[in-house]
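so im writing up the methods section and need the Extracellular small neutral protease record in one place, dumping it here so i stop losing it
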Amino acid sequence: MRLRMPLSVLSAAGLSLTALGLGAAPAGAAEAPLAPAGSYATYAGSSEEAAANRAFFEAVLKSVAEKRAADPTGAAAVTVVYNASQAPTFASQIAQSASIWNSSVSNVRLQSGTSGADFSYREGNDSRGSYASTDGHGRGYVFLDYAQNQTYDSTRVTTHETGHVLGLPDNYSGPCSELMSGGGPGPSCTNAYPNSAERSRVDQLWANGFAAALDKAQKALEKSGR
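--- predicted struct ---
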């Protein structure tokens, strides 16, 4: 299994990495070439892909915050809407992934929808495997590769990639009990649940990071006179 992310236009997120407490992207990351394909199980990741992971998370944060700033009367919980219509083969795994995350964290909730989605799922064949990416227009998508999902536990693959949506980085050297270790433990690992540290990190990101993104979105609305 290879859960690597192709480098996208990092500026699409439109938010400051430092403001969200996520660190700074490497200089020139947007122009850096992708790492060679290689084997997922032994792949150690790259600074470019780590930056792209952060950019994807920021794109989703920005999308959610803009909608909340425009309609502050919404529910208190932070809801992230996903569109799974372009990945019908994995409808069950996507729904299960959302259920796993919704039962694991409290500061953010994943909800299926086709209108005004904050990110989407897609499916197909790609030698690089499954990945999460920004689309260059302030939104993101998760791509699910057919072959990879036949070799590795499909629900684990999907829940892992959704972890990037929520702000978690890869840690391929981790144990099977760590969701973001991805394919590092090998095909026999079927754990699709985040561990306590991963759950805590997501809640922290969506409490602190979202507050920063919302403040930025509200100031932008005020400046535009809306």
